[in-house]
Amino acid sequence: MTNTPAEQAEKVAGVEVGERRITIPGMTEEGENLAAATNAAADHSHGGLGETKQVTSGAGSRTNRHTGFEVSGFPEPTGREEEWRFTPLKKLARVLTDAPSDGEPVDYQISAGEGVVVSSLTHGTAPRNQALQPADRAAVVASKNVDEALYIQVPADTEVSEPIRVVITGLEAGKRANSHIVLEAGTHAKAVFVLEHRGSAAFNGNVEVIVGDGADVKVISLQRWNDDAVHVGQHDAEVGRDASYKHVAISLGGEVVRLNTNFRYAAEGAEAEMYGLYFADSGQHIEHRTFVDHNSPRNTSNVLYKGALQGATARTVWVGDVLIRKAAEGTDSYEKNQNLLLTDGARADSVPNLEIETGLIEGAGHASSTGRFDENHLFYLMARGIPEKEARQLVVRGFLNEIIQKIDVESIEESLQEALEQELQIHGH
Question: What are the boundaries of each domain within the chain?
Fold first, then answer.
């Protein structure tokens, strides 16, 4: 008996092609079909940039975004640049200037279990700069002005039972602090790293994470600054073959927090996730930018950020970029951002961007939503005798709890639940 063409399953690089393969509207094996006829009736464009040859291959593409270690390659931003157009640059003047730290403006407390190696790395000493690729002026300035980076290494085949903690406490408002931390987990190692930021400072911090083949690594970054603190940072990770990596960013404190969180793959078979939670009050600007670089085949990624805002001048920004390169056949990727506005005047900007250069993928998608309470949820709770104030608090807690549960460290989860309760009491929600 001869199989029909529809029954045959040809594979290229391990991915089904031919009539049985998964098809994506507007996509071919060579990437996105940019013909006007194909895209004229599209429901939405990838990130609002449109579907044109010029945009896909031009300045709007992450493929062409400048990275490097020379400060001269990153002029001081004006606010007209794509990567800075949402950011209050005047409040970041201290951390964008090419300057050393003001003495010792922050205190580091490190708690590491048995088998963990804590040391430092000077410029040019591996594995410093293996994962980090400075992508804006803040990151390159921090990289240049830190002579000795904090280096925490978990050797191969080592499983650390307790979280490795680095508590960074700012000692004085406005004092400039440059920081560079390198976290490395060897082959088949397993560890949880917790970076907690407290106190007051003008903090510019890079974090790079090297995840060995088959390793299981989680990084939890807590921004719990005082109200007068400023924090900019770039967190980059390189994820090895068949490894698992999770990054969770929680931003509750600080006048301005701007965090770039990125990862790419060293080989195939890896699973990487990014989760974020932020709660902004009046006078706060909290900005998260994520970039998933699918640069090798058969890897998966998932990005989910959730935020709540209360107060007339509360401001949040989320910009999520996913780039699926031509070599990344078999990719499965998804990103989503959701924002809950609790009061009038609060503003949340949400920009998901998706670039696809190959049609041979398992799936890719993105979503974004910003709005007020679901009145049906409130009605359901109030109809069961719960007062409106408590009902609103339950809705917010339920909305954000999905991210808190991703932490999977009981002491941190309890602390964050208490912090959210305090936030909700500020405006009576």
Answer: 45-372, 374-429
